[in-house]
Please model this.
Amino acid sequence: MSPTSATFPTIAAHPADHAAIQATLDTLRQTLGMEVAYLSEFVQDRAVFRAVSAPGLDAMISPSQSMDLREVYCKHILDGGLPNLITDTGDHAIAVDLPITQMIPIGSHLSVPVHRADGSVFGMFCFLSRHPRPDLGPDALDMVWSGSAQVAMRIAAHESDAA
Model:
């Protein structure tokens, strides 16, 4: 299965929700001109990739893979050590020190939390490029926040159906 046809066994109740989550991810990735986009879910101390949009980079990231939260930007953003919008990872010591920054490499990063209906954090809505992107600004961040809210509504619907 390719990353753009991901399944969502724990986050969306209906096939239409699956398609909507993937479409939001794909559309925002393309609009922002980023190479990788994903929705993660925090499961214990791991970020589990639930949806991925990364054409041609299938070997690098795919749905159901996971990483330790200490090894990805998510935890550092939530803790306030990194901003939601990083136009050049080289400008942030924490980002430079994360092995994933060089491994992929990551030159720019946009990420916002996805909240559950109760306000807790489900995971993150993330977009990255292998190159610095000084052109990214508040409008790009607003788009990602909006996409995160749309995804959160789909997740909330699933969680209320499951209750």
